[in-house]
Amino acid sequence: MEVNGIAHVFLTASNFERSREFYRKLLPFLGLKPVIDTDTTYYCVGGRTAVGISAPAPEHAGSAFEQNRVGLHHLCFRARERADIDELFGFLCSLGAKIIFVGLQDIHPPTAGEVAATYEKVVGAQQTKLAKILDAEAAAIRLSAVSDAQAFTVTNVADAKRVQLVTSKLAQAALFTNQIPAFEAAPSVYRQRLYLQSFAAATKGARKYVLLVTNTQDVVIFNLEDRIRDDLLNLSVTNSP
User: Fold this and answer.
1) Neighbour order of strands in the sheet with 33-37
2) Cα 1 to the chain's mean position, in Å?
3) DSSP summary character for residue 80
4) What does the pLDDT look like over 196-230, one tens digit per residue?
């Protein structure tokens, strides 16, 4: 089992009205959104967690917090970069908050020798691991979508070519089937007609000369010159003044 972070943390304030006024400014500044704001509870959600402030029981109202007593020691927020910490410090100063202590001595994370550096490496490695996992998941989603689209396109193109090929072959088969009776009825005529059809198709658009070889008495004359238009031969030319 591995927990998915901390769902929420509740702090009981000795002076609820004063604390709520402070956290109404601080928590939204940290990116948490208020979802509950009543006379006894102030609750915000964000940053994969939630923080709540509640009023104390009447007999504990006004009691001072002691960090080393049994119970809560401190609450720590993690920033993404040093600039965020500097910005938060300026914001807290603008609220008039009293900064009691700045440092890491005797509290986590450790600061002695190389321990602090190692701790920061571990934290950084965890964040880097999470970032890479999220990047990999995003890349997998993009690759899957592209692959599905490409597969769909290839399948459609293949189906279209298959239908076109089958239709073409069926047409050729039907033409051949219809030619068989004509050939069987008159083979020589069929071959001659097929030859003439092929010759006409091959010489389409070409100028043709017909020569008579069986009847040498008759002479057929073809005028192959380009004919001049009659309207160009009967032009009336006038001299301009």
Assistant:
1) 9-12, 49-54, 41-46, 33-37
2) 33
3) S
4) 888 888 887 777 666 666 655 666 566 666 666 66
